[in-house]
C-alpha cells in the first residue's frame, strides 16, 4: 500500500465529524509524509485536516515527539487564548477515537492529525522585506511564548541535532564509504566545507560550554514552517514542532536567516539566482529584535550574524552527507536533489562572505 492509500485508511481512526471529500498530498516538507483532507459536515461546512506519517528513520521515538508537541501547543494555547483568531495561532492535535495523539497502523507507522490552518500562506522564498520583518517577529514571538516553558520537560527527539562536530564526523564517514561513487563529483564542495570546519563549530561549542544560554528552541525555523496571514503577511503560526528541544536561540535565528535571505530557493539549480540579500537580513533581524531584544543576552545578540552562516553551513554538510550516503534521510524529488541543495547552501555562504561587512 502506498502512502496515499495508507493515509486514506488511517484517517478513519481519528475523531473527525463529517464525510471525507478529498485528500491531497503536500510535498513541502523534507521529512514526514503529509496529506491534507477535506471533510464536509451535515450542514455542508468544510473543514480541512493535515495527516502526517511521522518519519521513523528520523524520529526514532514518535511517542516522545508527540508528548513534546502536546506540551508545547498547550502552553502556547494559554498565551493566545484571548486572541480572536486563536485557532490559527497554534497547531491543534486531533486525537484518535480511542483518545491517543497518534494512530499506529499495521506496519507500525505512526500517524498524527492536526486541524489544517486555513487562510494562511507558506513561502519557500520570501516575497518582500515586510514579510521578512514579520517572519523575524514571528520567530521572536514564538521564543517569547515559550520563555516560561520548562525545557527540562522536553524529550530530546534528535540528540545533537545541531552539533556541527558530529555532522562533520558523519560527513567524514560518508566520504570514506562513498557508497554511490559520488565523491569524485563533489571535490570542490568537500574542500570548501573542510576549510570551514573549525569556524562552523563555534556556536555548538559555546552552547555546550554554557556561554550561550540554554532555552527552548524550535530548531527548524525555515520559512515554510511558518504560516503567514495572506492579507497582512503577519507570521501567525510556527508549525513543524517535531524538533522542539532545549538549544540556543542562535539555531533558530540561523535557520530563518538561511531561508529568508536567500534570493533563490533552497533547491535552485541556477546558482546565479542564489545570493544573500542584505536588505532582507536587516528587515528580518529588525523584526526579530523587536520581540526578542528584551530577553537576549549580549552574547546571543552578538552571535546572530554568524548564526545565519553556521546554520547554512550545517545544512550544506547534512545535504552533502545524504547525497554521498545515497539519499537515505531527506525526501528528494530527483536523483541529485541533495547535491543541488548543497550547492545552493555553499553559494549562499560565499555570498554572505562577500558582503560580510555590509550587514
Ligand atoms: P515536515 O516535517 O515534513 O517538514 P511539516 O510539519 O513542516 O512537515 O508539514 C509540511 C507542510 O505542510 C508545511 O510546510 C505546511 O505547508 C503544511 N502544513 C503542515 N501542517 C499544517 C497545518 N496544520 N495547517 C496548514 N498547513 C500545514
Ligand atoms: C528538514 O522537516 P523540514 O523539511 O521542515 C530538516 C531540517 C532542515 C530542512 C532543510 C528533522 O526540515 O533540519 O533544515 O529539512 N528537518 C529534520 O530544508 O531533519
Ligand atoms: Mg517542515
From TrEMBL:
Residue runs in coiled coils: none
Domain of life: Bacteria
Domain Aminoglycoside phosphotransferase stretches: 126-263
SUPFAM superfamilies in the cross-refs: Protein kinase-like (PK-like)
Stored PANTHER family: AMINOGLYCOSIDE PHOSPHOTRANSFERASE DOMAIN-CONTAINING PROTEIN-RELATED (PTHR21064), SLR1880 PROTEIN (PTHR21064:SF5)
Protein name: Phosphotransferase
Amino acid at each position: 500500500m502506498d502512502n496515499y492509500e495508507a493515509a486514506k485508511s488511517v484517517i478513519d481512526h481519528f475523531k473527525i465529524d463529517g464525510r471525507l471529500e478529498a485528500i491531497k498530498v503536500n510535498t513541502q516538507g523534507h521529512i514526514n509524509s503529509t496529506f491534507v483532507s477535506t471533510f464536509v459536515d451535515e450542514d455542508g461546512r468544510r473543514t480541512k485536516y493535515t495527516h502526517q506519517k511521522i518519519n521513523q528513520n528520523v524520529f526514532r521515538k514518535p511517542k516522545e515527539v508527540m508528548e513534546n508537541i502536546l506540551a508545547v501547543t498547550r502552553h502556547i494555547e494559554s498565551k493566545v487564548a484571548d486572541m480572536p483568531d486563536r485557532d490559527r495561532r497554534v497547531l491543534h492535535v486531533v486525537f484518535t477515537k480511542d483518545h491517543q495523539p497518534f494512530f499506529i497502523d499495521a506496519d507500525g507507522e505512526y500517524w498524527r492529525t492536526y486541524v489544517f490552518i486555513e487562510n494562511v500562506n507558506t513561502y519557500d522564498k520570501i516575497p518582500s522585506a515586510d514579510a521578512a520583518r514579520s517572519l523575524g517577529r514571528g520567530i521572536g514571538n514564538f521564543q517569547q511564548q515559550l520563555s516560561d516553558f520548562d525545557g527540562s520537560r522536553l524529550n530530546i527527539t534528535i540528540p545533537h541535532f545541531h552539533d556541527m562536530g558530529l555532522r562533520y564526523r558523519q560527513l567524514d564517514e560518508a566520504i570514506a564509504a562513498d557508497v554511490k561513487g559520488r565523491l569524485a563529483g563533489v571535490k570542490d564542495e568537500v574542500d570548501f566545507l573542510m576549510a570551514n570546519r573549525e569556524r562552523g563549530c563555534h556556536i555548538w561549542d559555546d552552547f555546550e560550554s554554557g556561554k550561550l544560554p540554554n532555552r527552548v528552541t524550535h530548531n527548524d525555523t525555515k520559512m515554510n514552517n511558518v504560516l503567514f496571514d495572506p492579507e497582512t503577511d503577519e507570521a501567525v503560526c510556527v508549525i513543524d514542532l517535531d524538533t522542539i528541544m532545549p538549544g540556543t536561540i542562535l539555531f533558530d535565528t540561523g535557520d530563518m536567516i538561511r531561508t529568508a535571505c536567500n534570493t533563490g530557493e533552497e533547491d535552485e539549480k541556477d546558482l546565479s539566482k542564489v545570493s544573500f540579500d542584505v536588505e532582507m537580513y536587516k528587515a528580518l533581524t529588525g523584526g526579530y529584535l523587536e520581540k526578542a531584544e528584551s530577553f537576549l543576552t549580549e552574547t546571543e545578540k552578538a552571535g546572530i550574524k554568524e548564526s545565519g552562516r553556521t546554520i547554512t553551513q550545517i545544512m550544506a554538510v547534512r545535504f552533502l552527507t545524504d547525497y554521498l550516503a545515497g539519499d537515505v534521510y531527506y525526501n528528494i524529488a530527483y536523483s541529485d536533489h541533495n547535491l543541488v541543495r548543497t550547492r545552493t547552501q555553499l553559494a549562499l555562504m560565499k555570498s554572505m562572505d562577500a558582503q560580510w561587512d555590509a550587514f
